[in-house]
Design a protein that fits this description.
209 residues, mainly alpha, three-stranded parallel β-sheet
Length: 209
C-alpha cells in the first residue's frame, strides 16, 4: 500500500519478507501515529542494506553500550528480529509521551507467521521493498542471520515451523484451485445447456449481474 493509507478497524497485516528495515519502520511508525493497528510477520526475512560483516560490527558496537554501574538499567540489547524491528519503530515514535505510547501499543511483530495470521491476507509496502529501492549489485543482509549471530537462539525452530506452514498452505491452495476449476466447469455446462437461464433472470431481477 501507499504511504498515506486509509484507516480501518482491523489491523493491517504486513509480510516483512524482502523489505528494508528503515523504510518499513518509517511507514509503520507514521501509520501507528494515525491510530491504525499494524501487525508485521516474518521479521526474520527483513533486509538491511550494507554487507553482513558491516552490520554485525555495528550491532556488536551497540551491544558494548551499557550502564557502567548497573547494566540492568539499560540499554537493553534485544536479539530477536521482531524485537529489533520493534525498537527501530520505537525510535521513530515520541514514545515518552502518551500519544507515542498509545501508538506503540497498536504494534505487534512476529517471527514466522503464527496463527491466526497464517490464514489471513498479507500485504507488502512497495516503497519499502529492497528490489524496488536498491541496485541488484549492492550488498545486503537479512535480519534473521544478524540476530542469530548476536545471540538469537530460535532460527532453526522458526525455520522448521515455517516449513510446516508452507506445506499446509500449499495443500490449501491446491484444494482451492481444484474447487475453482469444478465451479468454472459447472458454470460453463449450465450456461451452454440453458438450465441456468431462468435462475439467472431471477438473480438479475434483484440487481445482480
Amino acid at each position: 500500500f501507499s504511504v498515506a493509507m486509509g484507516f480501518q478497524t482491523q489491523p493491517v497485516l504486513i509480510d516483512a519478507r524482502g523489505h528494508l528495515l528503515g523504510r518499513l519502520a518509517a511507514i509503520v511508525a507514521k501509520t501507528l501515529l494515525r491510530g491504525q493497528r499494524v501487525v508485521v510477520v516474518r521479521c526474520e526475512m527483513i533486509n538491511i542494506s550494507g554487507s553482513f560483516y558491516r552490520n554485525k560490527l555495528k550491532y556488536l558496537d551497540f551491544m558494548r553500550k551499557r550502564c557502567n554501574t548497573n547494566p540492568n538499567r539499560g540499554p537493553y540489547h534485544l536479539r530477536a528480529p521482531s524485537k529489533i524491528l520493534w525498537r527501530v519503530i520505537r525510535g521513530m515514535l515520541p514514545h515518552k509521551t502518551n500519544r507515542g505510547k498509545e501508538a506503540l501499543y497498536l504494534f505487534r511483530s512476529f517471527e514466522g507467521i503464527p496463527a491466526p495470521y497464517d490464514k489471513q491476507k498479507r500485504m507488502v509496502i512497495p516503497s519499502a521493498l529492497k528490489i524496488q529501492r536498491m541496485k541488484p549489485t549492492r550488498k545486503y543482509c537479512t535480519l534473521g542471520r544478524l540476530s542469530h549471530e548476536v545471540g538469537w537462539k530460535y532460527q532453526s525452530v522458526i525455520a522448521t515451523l515455517e516449513e510446516k506452514r508452507k506445506v499446509r498452505s500449499q495443500k490449501f491452495y491446491l484444494k482451492k484451485r481444484r474447487q475453482q476449476k469444478i465451479d468454472r466447469t459447472a458454470r460453463t455446462v449450465l450456461t451452454k445447456d440453458g438450465r441456468a437461464a431462468k435462475f439467472q433472470k431471477v438473480i438479475e431481477s434483484y440487481g445482480y449481474h
